């Protein structure tokens, strides 16, 4: 496959890279939660050994081709997958007659300048672009959606295929609304959301026996009750409790790990 780079055409796309990284799916980027956009016809969410992923009409796991990684080879990354690429990958095409509603700028055109298309940086989860074989689904504005062909040379590798070009499309549900102190947030791991502190360290509860070194979740001295959250005094320190149970903050090397006998707090 011939690979040529066009600085004129690729420059606007490269300028969008920093703005789109939060929606990235590659293994070296955080996975953005789903935004609630309706799934394409036949697409569903299935469980895999590594968590929930999107699957096609026949149950095949869906992959995203990260168009950022092919800019050096294709001035129009939406049309990159031809010839050798098509022998390994089948595009997830939109129903016949579906009009593309997203495209990438060419030349010195600014993103979103065309009135009839969406700005990729602000695109919902599922949009349609004009691909090499017709109208094709795109995930989160940047990932052309494919399935692997039977006997594909990459069939044994789930992620980072082709230098992080191809990755399974992983499903992360939208974060739940929580009523909690301002220092409490949520994080998604082990296929579920958990409560964390503002630094992303998981919160847990449990009975700490003996010389306890568990770190309570500190509360401001003037803090008042908030729903199921109450403030308790431990000597001259105030700390949060949840539904009458003490709340602790993980101090493990892995911020999502908790001591033995402890229970992770989930929304």
Entry keywords:
mainly beta; six-stranded antiparallel beta sheet; 3 helices; about 10% helix; about 25% strand; elongated; disordered N terminus
* Uncertain stretches: 1-24, 153-157
Work out the number of β strands. 17
Query: Please, what is the average pLDDT?
Result: 82
- How helical, in percent, are the residues? under 10%
- Largest sheet: number of strands, sense, barrel closure: 6 strands, antiparallel
Q: What Rg, in angstroms, do the CA atoms define?
A: 23 Å
Please write the string of helix (H) and strand (E) elements.
Answer: HEEEHEEEEHEEEEEEEEEE
Distance between the termini: 50 Å
Structural class: mainly beta
Strand content: 25-35%
> How would you sum up the global shape?
elongated
The helix count comes to 3
Number of domains: 2
Q: Can you give a write-up of this model?
A:
The protein is mostly beta strands. The chain has two domains: 7-168, no CATH class; 184-264, no CATH class. It contains three helices and 17 strands. The chain has helices at 7-20, 84-88, 161-164; strands at 44-48, 51-55, 63-66, 89-91, 126-131, 134-139, 143-148, 166-168, 184-189, 192-197, 203-205, 215-216, 229-234, 237-242, 245-246, 248-249, 263-264. Strands 3, 4, 5, 6, 7 and 8 form a six-stranded antiparallel β-sheet that branches. It has a four-stranded antiparallel β-sheet with strand order 12-16-11-17, with no helix packed on it. A hairpin with a 2-residue loop joins strand 1 and strand 2 (51-55). The protein starts with 6 loop residues before the first helix and ends with a strand.
């Amino acid at each position: 496959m011939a690979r040529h780079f066009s600085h004129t055409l690729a420059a606007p796309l490269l300028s969008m890279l920093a703005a789109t990284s939060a929606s990235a799916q590659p293994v070296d980027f955080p996975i953005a939660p789903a935004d609630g956009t309706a799934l394409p016809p036949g697409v569903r969410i299935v469980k895999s050994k590594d968590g929930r992923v999107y699957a096609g009409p026949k149950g095949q796991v869906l992959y995203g081709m990260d168009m950022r990684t092919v800019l050096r080879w294709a001035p129009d990354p939406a049309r990159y997958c031809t010839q050798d690429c098509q022998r390994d990958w089948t595009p997830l095409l939109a129903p016949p007659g579906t009009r593309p509603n997203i495209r990438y700028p060419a030349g010195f055109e600014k993103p979103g300048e065309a009135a009839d298309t969406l700005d990729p940086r602000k695109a919902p989860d599922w949009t349609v672009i004009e691909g090499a074989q017709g109208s094709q689904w795109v995930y989160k504005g940047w990932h052309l959606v494919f399935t692997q062909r039977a006997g594909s040379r990459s069939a044994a590798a789930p992620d980072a295929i082709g230098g992080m070009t191809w990755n399974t499309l992983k499903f992360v549900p939208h974060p739940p609304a929580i009523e909690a102190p301002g220092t409490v947030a949520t994080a998604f791991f082990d296929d579920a959301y958990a409560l964390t502190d503002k630094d992303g360290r998981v919160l847990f509860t449990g009975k700490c026996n003996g010389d306890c070194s568990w770190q309570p979740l500190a509360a401001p001295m003037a803090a008042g009750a908030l729903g199921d959250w109450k403030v308790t005094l431990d000597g001259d320190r105030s700390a949060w409790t949840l539904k009458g149970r003490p709340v602790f903050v993980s101090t493990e090397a892995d911020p999502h790990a908790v001591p033995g006998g402890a229970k992770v707090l989930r929304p």
